[in-house]
Design a protein that fits this description.
Elements: E1 30-33, E2 36-47, E3 53-60, E4 65-72, E5 76-84, H1 93-100, E6 106-109, E7 112-126, E8 135-143, E9 149-156, E10 160-169, E11 175-178
Antiparallel strand pairs: 1-2, 1-11, 2-3, 2-7, 3-4, 4-5, 5-10, 6-7, 7-8, 8-9, 9-10
């Protein structure tokens, strides 16, 4: 270890191999969810400022892909989502952002209403990439009335938008977590 290696960011998400939780996931870990076995294909870090980070995992089961978002702030919040077409949302998100700087307060997806809850600016990066490669973006989270289903709108640059639809999950739904380096 060199002198300057001491000052590099150290992993703060170490785990006990006998008690691996969803917050400990890394690339190539395996886990069971929703009666399927999934592999962590990629891991992403979201930097929201003030030393607050959340993580997202691209999970692949061989015939399906989902995204698992893990937010360990005051309490653990887990969302399982799939990318959707922006055009599948009834409201014109791009026009609203151009006119007002934000998407509408209410969105409709598959006949169900979702209400804007949070607006966040941050930086995104694949954990394989350097911190200098992080990309700035905006995101807006919407929830249904029961606060069980989630729509997320992301803006990348001035004119690029993405959407995802998901549901909140509980940690106990993720079982048999196996690290990649057994």
């Amino acid at each position: 270890m060199g002198l300057f290696d001491f000052f590099k960011k150290k992993p703060d998400r170490e785990y006990d191999p006998l008690n691996i939780r969803v917050v400990h996931l890394r690339e190539n870990f395996m886990l069971d969810y929703d009666m399927k076995t999934w592999m962590v294909a990629e891991m992403y870090e979201y930097d929201w400022g003030e030393n607050y980070f959340t993580y997202e995992y691209k999970l692949d089961s061989g015939d399906d892909t989902i995204f698992l978002s893990v937010d360990e702030d005051d309490e653990l919040e887990i969302t399982v989502a799939r990318k959707i077409k922006l055009s599948s949302i009834e409201e014109d998100i791009e026009l609203s952002v151009k006119q007002t700087g934000k998407p509408p307060k209410k969105l409709t997806y598959k006949g169900k209403a979702y209400f804007r809850d949070t607006e966040n600016a941050g930086f995104y990066r694949n954990v394989k990439d350097s911190f200098d490669d992080a990309i700035e973006f905006m995101s807006w989270d919407y929830y249904d009335e029961a606060e069980e289903l989630n729509l997320c709108i992301e803006q990348w640059g001035k004119n690029e938008f993405e959407a995802s639809f998901g549901k909140l999950a509980e940690e106990f739904q993720f079982t048999n977590i196996i690290p990649a380096n057994i």
